[in-house]
Amino acid sequence: MPVAGSSRRTNNARRRDLSDGIEEEDSRRPEREDVDDGEDSDDDQPRRRAKAVKKEKKPNIHVEDDKEEDDGEEQFEDPLKNFSDQPLGKAQAVKLVGMASDWSMTRQAVRGGTINLITDVASSVAEFGEGEKSQKVLSDLDTTMRELIDADSELTAQEIVLNEINQKVNLKEDITDVVERYEREMKNKLNAYKNKTTRQKYAKNDDYVKFKSSIYEVQNPDTAMPPLTDMIPREDGDDSDDDDDVQVGGITQDYRCPLTLTILVNPLTSMVCHHSFSADAIQEFLGPSHTTTKKCPASGCNKYICLNDLKDDKELAKKAKDAARRERMREDDSDEEDVVE
Length: 341
Prior knowledge:
It is built from eight helices and five strands, in the order ααααααββαβββα.
């Protein structure tokens, strides 16, 4: 029994010690947790501050990016704002000469084709047409001829303006407004032509003189055509009809060869004195040499000519044939009148 009692006491003592130890650990555990909490809070604070610092830096970064974008925009805008038209170089000016040549070819095509055709038609209408209908056709052809002359004047202006710009570039003049200058010069020339009177536009125009002559010589054979100023009414801006320099008398076109005194056959015209001859007659007169000169056989001419000075004149050849036909018709009419009488 005594032994059992001591063992119980021993066990009880162990239990108390164990429970006391547990209570001590429980009492100490909050202190460690407090310490841990303190350490955790200390660790968290730097992290939160670091995050706060980063948030404060972000606006600065965006501002710098915006500035860089603004700087980039300014770099692209400045060259455009300061950019200006460069002077026209000689290489580009040469192209203007090509354009002027194109206008010249167009003008020559109009003159050589359409204008000559209308002149021939007018001559035929004047010869074979009758009455008011014929006069109406001739009036319409006259209007068309004037319109073609107006178009020819505009084409000539195009050619002149382009060549003038090219010449100024060759003289080292800086031309930075080539389009504006071209349009301005064209406008000035067109307005100047538009402000001319009818006489000023057509009375001294070679194409119009030929057109009117082709009609007049059919209607009035062997009669010199009066100056066109007599056919075109005077307008404000025209010189007085009494001025000597305006009253230039007309001439009678002679289709007879000065050597044969007959109607021209295959006519050759001298580039020196502009007299025309039948080909066979003038070649026999000058001889076989193409360079030997002789005095022109036309009455009153003191020029010396050679075969090399002569050229074919197809236009005159056609007119000579028409003149020969009209002469035969007049002779036939005269013979019929003689028979009737």
